[in-house]
Amino acid sequence: MRIIAGTNRGRNLISPIGLGTRPTADRVREAVFSSIGSRVFTARILDLFAGTGAMSLEALSRGALSAVLIEKDKAAAEIIKKNIALCKAQDARLIVADCFSVIPSLKGQFDLVFIDPPYNRGLLYKALVALLNTDCLSEDALIVAETSSSEPEEICFEHLFEIKRAKYGEAQIIYYCIK
Description:
By secondary structure, this protein is of the alpha/beta class. The chain has helices at 26-36, 54-61, 74-86, 99-102, 123-132; strands spanning 44-48, 66-71, 92-96, 110-115, 137-148, 160-168, 171-178.
């Protein structure tokens, strides 16, 4: 696993051993960042279920202003700390906690949100509900969610619009914008 583009291009990141954390594959990350293009530049990032931190670190490498990474698994959080140090990402802040306890108290507004919960547990819906019940999303926020391609649920909210969906093997990336 490596940073694909930007100031840290080619930098290898630490990956977990075992199946407790499922890092987003390089090719999927590359497709996501190709899709969002320049929206990452100067964005304020929120990364829920941050795993290895690869999505936020990629965004920072490509010009994002700051990133808040939330991960409750302590082993994964240790990997994120090491990856932040490897990338010298001074604008990354890690919060080791359950995202559902943190979201209500987030300060500021985020332009780009990554959500990559454990598959097939209904956590994407729960995370979207939590986000929409706060004022932590900017007016033109983009939410990029990774779920299992076998998860059939269509998620409909009054103030959230699905703009794109793409499948990459077992992974499915869904892009949402605020209405």
